[in-house]
Amino acid sequence: MKNTLELVQYGPVIPVIVINRLEDAVPMAQALVDGGVRVLEVTLRTSIALQCMEAIAKAVPDAILGAGTVRSPADAQAAKDAGCTFAVSPGYTSAIGAACVKIGLPLLPGTATGSEVMQANADGLLFLKFFPAMQAGGIAMLKALAGPFTDVVFCPTGGITLATAPDFLALPNVKVCGGSWLTPADAVAAKDWARITALAREASALRA
Ligand code: 3PG
Questions:
Q1: Does the pLDDT of residue 12 top 90, yes or no?
Q2: Residue 41 appears among annotated catalytic residues
Q3: pLDDT digits over 66-102, tens only?
Q4: pLDDT recorded at residue 207
Q5: Where do the domains of the chain lie, and which CATH numbers do they carry?
Q6: Which residues have any ligand 1 atom within 6 Å of their CB?
Q7: Whose CA is nearest to atom 7 of ligand 1?
Q8: What would the mean pLDDT of 25-34 be, rounded to a whole number?
Q9: Cβ-Cβ contacts under 8 Å for 127 (sequence gap 6 or more)
Q10: Could you confirm whether 54 is annotated as catalytic?
């Protein structure tokens, strides 16, 4: 992958995944892939996240594996070493942008304001996460950003659900959205992989 914009071809939703038990990593990833969701963002929010990425990269070849919550150049390198093919960051700095370019790891950086969008654009990034989407102004803010930033495409993430995703996906400057609703904590705790496959199927059907 050269650019994270390539991710949009695989479907309308990127699950944002937090994994607390290593044993859950592969069956959870497989359950999502079985439901038609191939692009997975595994967040660096737990101590076993890198091990989970390694396990998924090895055992679920159809997954397009990315690292979320990448906050530093060291995070980006560790994610790449663990087998991730893209990175997602909650915010943007030119340092993280340059580090990802240097190691050849396409970045989907978080932005929430015009200044952040401009900084990312200045560094050559035109596909941006809009985070935290609901808290930072939701649909109205994305519509407002479409005015000046005519060539920018967003992946809103944060507070989006199956019910609200279609409204985001209907915006011309949104090609995909992210969220944690595909991997509910109670389903994971119960190892209810069939439910996760069903949630993935619903999410992949949101837009053809
Ligand atoms: C996150 O970074 O946690 C994502 O934005 C997911 O947010 P959500 O849990 O509100 O979907």
A1: yes
A2: yes
A3: 999 999 999 999 999 999 999 999 999 999 999 999 9
A4: 76
A5: 4-200 (3.20.20.70)
A6: 16, 131-132, 157-160, 179-181
A7: 158
A8: 98
A9: 3, 4, 5, 8, 108, 152, 153, 154, 155, 175
A10: no
